[in-house]
């Protein structure tokens, strides 16, 4: 069972991101404030859920949350500020979008920058411990997957609809054959080191 609250504050926001380890596309972050009595039979860390379950959860979270926000940090910005800063910036932006200001913020992972004067705590594997972080992880993942499925139509040869931009063998083979697209992150190592030629 995931815990519903960490801080004791009623307006506690959980925040998380998706897409940090991808070779292309945005980092997507979400922040969610859930009511005290929020429950759902299978809400858990989005990585533990099937795509179908995540899709089912998204409208339920959006309808029942006190507030939620989702922000996209595009690949150009990821390249400019690096992926860790992009994750934190995305989380800040999604908190900014909450129509109710939180009294406390709980963050998935171990890195965060102070947001305004609101106290926060970073929690490693927080998406498997607290409902609001799990809810944020589901929103971040579903919004990002939806976007990747959309740009897949433009560049089907990388099969982003399936690999979502993660460095799978198939995605890397696509890069080898067709090169990088405008959606690829230029600062990421898109391919393992080139094989050295025998001299």
TrEMBL record:
Its cofactor is Mn(2+); Mg(2+). It is an enzyme of class 3 (hydrolase). GO terms for cellular component: cytoplasm; ribonuclease H2 complex. GO terms for molecular function: manganese ion binding; RNA binding; RNA-DNA hybrid ribonuclease activity. It comes from the Bacteria. This is Ribonuclease HII. Keywords: Cytoplasm, Endonuclease, Hydrolase, Manganese, Metal-binding, Nuclease. It is found in: Cytoplasm. Residues 10-199 form the RNase H type-2 domain. Its EC number is 3.1.26.4. InterPro entries: RNase_HII (IPR022898), RNase_HII/HIII (IPR001352), RNase_HII/HIII_dom (IPR024567), RNaseH-like_sf (IPR012337), RNaseH_sf (IPR036397).
